[in-house]
Specification:
The protein has 330 residues and is of the alpha/beta class. It has one domain (9-311): TIM Barrel. The chain is 42% helix and 13% strand. It has twelve helices and eight strands. The chain has an eight-stranded parallel β-barrel, surrounded by five helices. The chain is globular.
């Protein structure tokens, strides 16, 4: 593995933007056919690679104009064994797809690194089950074994970190952190929440973070919240609490709808980009340690542009800022 950063820049206090809801944007705004919301299928042909390149470069231009860094998140949320089988991706192609996703982002980083700094390449890991309604809760060991297949593929690339997105339950998050630790790649855990601020399993966010940290000796680089509107979780975050300071990133939905309502909606709810930017700003004022800001379902470059306008620039890292060291040998 080639290590690009000695420390994760988003943990030094520097604001890093990331993209919006890649699947909903590509499906509703660009007419892409993504089976089971799997954006990785675009990597299978040249036109799709070009579409993904254009998608990410639009966001990098926003980061450049805002003077912010950027986290490039790979389009591999569905690229795990179960979902790949449903989509029809062969076991041989599965490993190649994950590697190709990181190679694409590494190439984009090389092209843009003189205009946007820092740029972090992250390998995206999605849940084994549905991101809204988990139908199967694995054991911690089972989750570690299951996700280690995709993580092993990422570990052989130029990835800087891994991001476990839309996590619905604690055992799966623990297994992913352990699998990432085994190959020496830093990992971020991002939980999805319901309208009551709890995980889909009913677990309070505080309990989820504390249980994962306790079970893994606190080796997750940090935590995020994604696929939920700010009004659904703002009230459960405690200023100054140790568990809340572990949350460094937000990727909120554009819509205030519940997951069940979003599933049943006949059209995309894009919300109000300006209002979303203001809500991010309000959260940033309460929790100044937040450094990774982007969007999830229903959001696109318009939302991230408004988030950037409301929250950037943040300035250089201050003294005493914390960082997560990469211990992988180059």
């Amino acid at each position: 593995m080639s290590v690009h950063w000695q420390y994760l820049p988003q943990l030094t206090g520097r604001l890093c933007l990331t993209d919006g809801g890649i699947e909903t944007d590509l499906i509703f705004h660009h007419g892409e056919d993504l089976p089971y919301n799997a954006a990785y299928v675009l990597l299978e042909h040249d036109r799709g690679v070009e579409r993904l390149t254009q998608y990410f470069e639009r966001y990098l231009a926003i980061a450049r104009d805002a003077g912010a860094g950027f986290v490039l998140e790979s389009p591999t949320w569905r690229s795990n064994p179960d979902w790949s089988t449903k989509i029809g991706t062969s076991p041989e192609a599965f490993d190649s797809i994950n590697r190709k996703a990181i190679a694409l982002l590494a190439g984009i980083r090389d092209k843009w690194q003189h205009e946007v700094s820092p740029i972090v390449v992250s390998g995206c890991i999605g849940p084994r089950s549905d991101g809204y309604r988990p139908s199967e809760i694995m054991s911690e060991y089972g989750a570690e074994q299951y996700h280690s297949i995709q993580i092993a593929a990422f570990a052989q690339t130029d990835v800087d970190c891994l991001s476990a997105m839309t996590m619905t339950n604690v055992p799966e998050a623990i297994g992913i952190v352990r699998a990432a630790r085994a190959v020496g790649v830093p990992v971020i855990v991002s939980f999805t929440l319901e309208t009551d601020g709890r995980l889909p399993t009913g677990t309070p966010l505080r309990e989820a973070i504390e249980r994962v940290d306790d079970a893994t000796a606190g080796t997750a680089a940090y935590y995020m919240i994604n696929c939920v509107h700010p009004t659904h979780f703002a009230g459960v975050l405690d200023e100054g609490a140790a568990w809340t300071t572990r949350i460094r990133g937000l990727r909120a939905n554009a819509s205030r709808c519940s997951h069940a309502e979003l599933d049943a909606a006949p059209r995309l709810d894009e919300g109000d980009p300006v209002e979303l930017g203001a809500q991010y700003r309000a959260l940033l004022e309460r929790f100044p340690h937040l450094t990774v800001l982007g969007g999830c379902c229903g959001t696109d470059h318009r939302h991230v542009r408004e988030i950037a306008a409301a929250c950037a620039p943040r300035g250089a890292p201050g003294p005493g800022s914390t960082a997560f060291a990469l211990n992988t040998v180059q």
